[in-house]
């Protein structure tokens, strides 16, 4: 075993007893009672849209997404409880998962520049910007290069935002729930952004009202979320990365979001589909399927560390999958991306709305 992998193996072993106790206590407490009405519009016409498992961390549990026949809203049902959220987020963005994801998110400069640049036609020089769900603040660090005169603050419910403030990626870091912090930040921001945040929220409507409170009159709200109407969602089924169960609780069709923002007192000034598309759908689907088929990598929620044979088999299977991973990357980037809007496969949409 190399020196580099030793601490990780020890950290996994140290986390194992707590996970074992959590799993032994039963998974039912990780879920709220199942809803019979749509959380977006209240209609009672629900159908099952997807049944799946945790394909990223492979923690135990089964998850269901329902679709509302009244408005098209898709949501996790039953939804994770507070205990469930804690269990399934643990060691994903922080703890054991922090380094891995830091590397992933750290390398996305071009995408972050695009997000910051999408504000330029509407306000070329905002003074204050609050990034809600900022994580470790990587977007803000890159956005400052595009908008050097703007002060970026970050908000997140994890301690990642404190790290972001210490590292100077955000001017101020607010830790907590946005709806609870919003009254203290009322009318303070020229721009409030929510990049891939709303789908994680237990109550998106409450988040939108908090956003309305914190954006000054005449200021802008910038939202980017997965697009549940993407063709990939149907074609790839449970292997479509943006379903991201069990973290993504709500999938809002773009017409619903426009309507709700208008009702709250915003004017939608831009709707983009091609620009926020992240060309990883096929690659991610091939990876998720390979990873699912292969023997498990070690993780603290497994009863014990996989033996040498299983680890060798896993390595061999992933190696055999490399040609498929390369082919899918090339298709994503060079064949499908230029046509993403025309093929209706764009996996996200972006809305810019001005507060009146
Ligand atoms: Zn509905």
Question: Layout of SSEs?
Answer:
Blueprint: H1 5-24, E1 46-53, E2 62-68, E3 74-76, H2 82-89, H3 98-106, H4 109-117, E4 128-132, H5 138-146, E5 151-156, H6 160-166, E6 173-175, H7 178-181, E7 189-195, H8 204-214, E8 215-226, H9 231-236, E9 250-251, H10 254-264, E10 266-272, H11 281-293, H12 308-320, H13 322-336, E11 348-355
Helix pairs in contact: 4-5, 11-13
The protein binds zinc ion.
Give the termini distance in whole angstroms.
60 Å
Helix content: 25-40%
Number of helices: 13
> Low-confidence runs (pLDDT<50, min 5 residues)?
none
The 3D shape can be described as globular
Query: Would you tell me the structural class of the helices and strands?
Result: alpha/beta
Summary of the model, kept short:
The protein is α/β, with parallel strands linked by helices.
Account of the protein in words:
It contains 13 helices and eleven strands. By secondary structure, the protein is α/β, with parallel strands linked by helices. The strands form two sheets. Strands 6-5-4-7-8-11-10 form a seven-stranded mixed β-sheet, sandwiched between helices. A four-stranded antiparallel β-sheet has the order 1-2-3-9, with no helix packed on it. The longest helix is centred in the N-terminal third of the chain and has 20 residues, at 5-24. The radius of gyration is 21 Å and the shape is globular. The termini are far apart. Bound molecules: zinc ion. The site of zinc ion has 8 residues, from loops.
